[in-house]
Amino acid sequence: MIDFEALFKVSYGLYIVCSGDKIKGNGFISNSIFQVTAEPPQFAACCNKNNYTAEFIKKHQAFSISVLSQETPSDIIGRFGYKSGRDTNKLKGLDINYGETGVPIVMNESVATMECKLVQTSDVGTHLIFIGELIQAEIIDENRDPLTYAYYRQIRKGIAPKNAPTYVDKSKLLKKKDFLK
Q: Cβ(118)–Cβ(41) under 8 Å?
């Protein structure tokens, strides 16, 4: 038996991962970013193969990570988490910087940003894990707390979109009363 509620006990943050250039870029909400090495510092970003941003990361061989604040408005999360860049320009109207590699970096609601040069891609089934060497990192606002997935789920009552690696079909969640049987 798998109690899928146990999966929600794994700690995550919420981030915007972007790639592209000044002509065309895209991004998505990710809760699966983690540091994999210290020397050199490398970060992994997990991305659904069908995600439009995966194409940009492969093409541009780089990606950015924007660490979101707890106060991030729902429209930012909705724009990057529940809409496709194939249908809308997710970066339009936002405060965007361009890093050393030329990739877009979302500044809106960011407490920190990072830029990584792609060094490895691993196919893990429905998702790709992009591993990038950190080439730039900056604290944007040290006075605000980063948005964690636990805070997003418990306080803001948010859910993961279907393409997210942490998506769980509600029908698979066990009810508390099922444990009493």
A: no
Contacts of 37 (CB under 8 A, 6+ apart): none
Count of structural domains within the chain: 1
Which residues are CB-neighbours of 176 under 8 A, at least 6 positions away? none
pLDDT tens string 79-128: 998 888 999 999 999 999 999 999 999 999 999 999 999 999 999 999 99
Return d(Cα 170, Cα 100) in angstroms, integer: 42
Per the CB < 8 A criterion, the answer to whether 132 and 60 are in contact is no
Domain of residue 9 covers 4-179
Q: What is the CATH number of the domain that holds 170?
A: 2.30.110.10
